[in-house]
Design brief:
By secondary structure, the protein is of the alpha+beta class. It has 3 domains: 142 residues, no CATH class; 104 residues, no CATH class; 124 residues, Guanine Nucleotide Dissociation Inhibitor, domain 2 (2-Layer Sandwich). Helix 1 packs across helix 2, helix 2 packs across helix 4 and helix 2 packs across helix 7. Bound molecules: flavin-adenine dinucleotide. The site of flavin-adenine dinucleotide has 19 residues, from strand 9 and helix 12.
């Protein structure tokens, strides 16, 4: 927003005093307090809170001290070292000359997995704490402590301690705000116009891109910045004799194949219900379930509620709950399958039963409407291949050279989004876009 010259005051934001509450499995032997773990943006309160639940106060202090040190620096480095992720050797050299001593520390910690860090003397050893980290890492960097590099993980684990806000009307309001901004600057935004092919022509030394859509329209451009996920792109450029197009297609095919295993989808349940939280000051919750959900779904659920003061998403006295969990094997969900509806129903029942038992005030009888979405639904909603909505998990980023760049072998064809810039969700997407913008001057 700062880069666009927009004041945050122009957005309908409510600042949240607590970013998230986490409820661990009631049956964990170490879960002695049995109540919620509360996360807010006060770092020292957080260290006390985490020690209250998992013990090992000194070790917790050391662990979180390191996480905050690394994550503060990750945000700084991400916006300073704009030649990273590297396109070529020149980018590596341009980055090396800008390196500061602290950057080297980040680099070294990027080689260590969180699981290995926890094995070192002086760091927490509680199994339940590791499970807490695993489920928090999964909703941020899309992998668990076993595979999460410490540097990227530090940003994911401390997300909840930044200032957290709620957009009245929901996240769609933020998108609408940005669309209005683009239009106010003379730009155009076209909705519901799926691209079904991109052709490349070389005219003298220039490249001309023609973009075809399902509405039978063709748009011409001399540059393209694609936000389409990497898994969807190659098929838009196939069937060609043009050597430049072939080259780009092969590059994208290789990139897409490189990040093709263990990619997450999501299963969601949306509920409209009578308000049962009243003036509770937290609207984001993570619950560890007693057992993993069936069909490759997660062992925890994330619940995000509409704010009590939000009368755009529901009437006063009601709340909207968006419940989500990770779905391994998103390709296994098929809407034509006979058991499709019963599988969804089974999951809904398990989640609702759990919440009724473990969340004070939550009751089936208060539910006014309920809907669910499998990865197959997400594929319809977003067009993302197989409903893969999780981006690239941090487990792929084993060293700095394995991070993908926005540049392609073709001049003026760039890639953005959560299948390109390494990181987490929307912050990663935005940082990638800012860096590309700076590089293109
Ligand atoms: C349940 C859930 C909860 C999440 N919670 C958070 C969160 O709390 N915080 C966070 O930071 N992130 C969160 N994320 C992740 C975040 O939503 C994504 O990382 C982010 O939206 C990725 O942005 P993107 O622009 O790369 O991709 P997308 O948002 O998927 O945008 C890509 C766009 O390309 C369009 N497209 C695809 N193919 C074509 C085509 N052929 N022609 C035209 N258009 C096409 C799609 O329709 C889509 O609109 C969550 C994701 C899910 C599924």
């Amino acid at each position: 927003m700062k880069e666009l010259g927009i004041s945050l005051g122009n957005l309908p934001l409510v600042i949240l005093p607590k970013s998230m509450k986490v409820k661990m499995k009631p049956s964990y032997p170490e879960n002695q307090t049995k109540d919620f773990i509360e996360r807010n943006n006060n770092r020292s309160e957080w260290v006390q809170e985490v020690a209250r639940h998992f013990g090992e106060a000194q070790k917790q202090k050391r662990f979180w001290g390191l996480m905050f040190f690394l994550s503060d620096h990750v945000w700084n480095v991400s916006s300073r070292l704009i030649h990273f992720p590297f396109r070529n050797l020149t980018d590596v050299l341009k980055t090396i000359v800008r390196l500061k001593a602290k950057d080297i520390i980040l680099f070294l910690f990027s080689l260590i997995r969180i699981e290995s860090l926890l094995l070192l003397p002086g760091f927490p050893k509680s199994k339940e704490f590791k499970k807490f980290l695993d489920e928090q890492l999964l909703i941020t960097v899309q992998t668990t402590s076993k595979k999460a590099p410490t540097t990227l993980a530090s940003a994911g684990l401390t997300y909840a301690h930044l200032e957290n806000s709620y957009v009245l009307g929901g996240i769609g309001e933020l998108a609408r705000f940005l669309v209005d901004f683009i239009i106010s600057k003379g730009g155009e935004v076209r909705f519901k116009e799926e691209i079904n092919g991109i052709q490349i022509e070389k005219k003298q030394s220039n490249i001309l891109y023609s973009v075809h859509t399902r509405k039978n329209k063709t748009y011409f451009a001399t540059s393209i910045v694609s936000g389409i996920p990497i898994w969807n792109l190659p098929k838009l450029l196939e069937n060609t004799k043009n050597p430049s197009q072939k080259k780009l297609n092969q590059f994208l095919e290789r990139r897409s194949n490189r990040y093709d295993k263990n990619i997450w989808g999501a299963f969601n349940i949306s509920i409209l219900m009578e308000d049962f939280l009243g003036d509770e000051d937290c609207i984001h919750f993570q619950f560890h379930l007693e057992e993993e959900l069936p069909y490759g779904l997660g062992e925890s659920i994330f619940v995000s509620l509409s704010h009590i003061s939000d009368d755009k998403r529901c009437a006063k006295g009601q709340r909207v709950l968006a419940i989500s969990t990770h779905a391994a094997y998103p390709e296994s969900w098929d809407r034509r399958e006979e058991s499709y509806k019963s599988k969804k129903q089974e999951i809904i029942s398990k989640v609702i039963d759990y919440l009724e038992k473990n969340w004070k005030g939550f009751s089936k009888n208060k539910i006014l409407q309920i809907q669910s979405a499998s990865p197959a639904t997400w594929e319809v909603w977003t067009g993302r291949y197989q409903g893969r909505v999780g981006g690239i998990p941090a487990s792929y980023f084993k060293n700095l050279l394995s991070y993908p760049s926005s540049f392609t072998p073709l001049k003026n064809f760039y890639l953005l989004g959560d299948t390109v810039y390494p990181g987490q969700g929307i912050p990663g997407v935005v940082l990638g876009a800012l860096n590309l913008f700076k590089r293109l001057g």
